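User: Predict structure, ligand 2-acetamido-2-deoxy-beta-D-glucopyranose.
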Amino acid sequence: MLKNLGLLSLLPLFTASTQGVSIAATRDFPLGSEVENIVLRPCGSALTVVGTFPGVYEVEPKANATPRLIHDFNNTQGAHGTPSITASPLYPDVFFVITGFFNFSDFTPEANSYAIHRLSFDEHGQPIVKELARLDAIRQPNGMIAVPDSPFVLIADTLGGFIYRFNTETNELSQYFDDALLKAPDLGTHVFFGINGLKLSRGYLYFSNTNQQLMARIPASGLEMPSLTGTQAPEVITRKTACDDFIVNPSNGDLYIAEQGFGNATVNGVGFVPGDKYGNSTAPVTIAGGPNSTALLGPTAVIWAEGKVGKTLLVTTTGGFTQFVTGNYTGGGTVSIVDLDH
Ligand SMILES: *[C@@H]1O[C@H](CO)[C@@H](O)[C@H](O)[C@H]1NC(C)=O
Ligand SMILES: *[C@@H]1O[C@H](CO)[C@@H](O)[C@H](O)[C@H]1NC(C)=O
Ligand SMILES: *[C@@H]1O[C@H](CO)[C@@H](O)[C@H](O)[C@H]1NC(C)=O
Ligand SMILES: *[C@@H]1O[C@H](CO)[C@@H](O)[C@H](O)[C@H]1NC(C)=O
Ligand SMILES: *[C@@H]1O[C@H](CO)[C@@H](O)[C@H](O)[C@H]1NC(C)=O
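Assistant: Predicted complex:
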């Protein structure tokens, strides 16, 4: 009953915001590329990383732009894939990248394969990459975000069900947050994804949990010492979401969630939760793509395009994740450009 009421109250907004959404995409990344994470350079071009290849790509977030491999981690220990990238909280055009090995055949991370690297650019625009530290304490790093005006980045451990904090100046790694809402329950699928995306916005730490199919938030700055654990209980803000990563509109709290799903539960869309409709019984509504659509095949992450907060989303896709797992690829991944007010 409550669930139905929650959904009904969303319907008018849903109708208003779906009319007019337009979707374009870059050219495909190489076949089998599970484009996983994305961040903007100050010039507005996007750096993306791929879970299935150890590469960092740069692409203009425009229709038909061609992704360019700018750094290859092929000769780096354990680097079969690059699950995460974030901008430095302190230095412009400097990034942190996580490499490691997640085996997409049996959905298992290889222990002790993960490391964090610093990526900057020289005066000729060539990337300079330096390994900072191994991340052996983290069972499967997933999302990563910078804590503003600090040396810290926060890293989600999707398998362990923790958030870690890494000091990019001292290379110190510590556990920042432990909570039941970060854990990956056993769904009988042998696939364990707990906390997946995380963002700091509006005085809160927001996070998604894939196996629990929910998103939650807790008041946080990222600077709590020694950790955030036990300060308050997180608040569930949406359920019934096939969530991967997501973005928050900082002005009104609206959530845009990359929803992928799996098997029959395939969503292949962007889920929307208005900032004034958070709740334990609120479910997102699909505003772009959808189960019977090929417009967004396997959305993994969402950010705002340069200067377009509230207007244009950049969505990374796998090119068809279910198909990727079965070996039947529909295409390479993309960066898709979703105009909300077209
Ligand atoms: C890494 O090496 C493999 C095998 O040699 C190659 O196919 C691939 O293109 C290389 N680069 C990346 C980013 O995967
Ligand atoms: C990945 O997992 C599959 C299935 O368990 C296994 O056959 C394969 O050897 C693994 N790949 C690597 C590189 O460990
Ligand atoms: C998928 O659909 C089949 C056939 O309808 C059903 O047996 C199965 O339980 C469904 N799986 C999931 C995960 O919903
Ligand atoms: C997708 O298509 C199937 C088969 O035509 C239909 O039963 C189902 O309702 C559709 N789902 C959505 C969300 O439109
Ligand atoms: C891949 O697709 C082909 C043709 O549709 C189908 O026959 C085959 O069973 C699929 N393979 C898998 C592993 O799903």
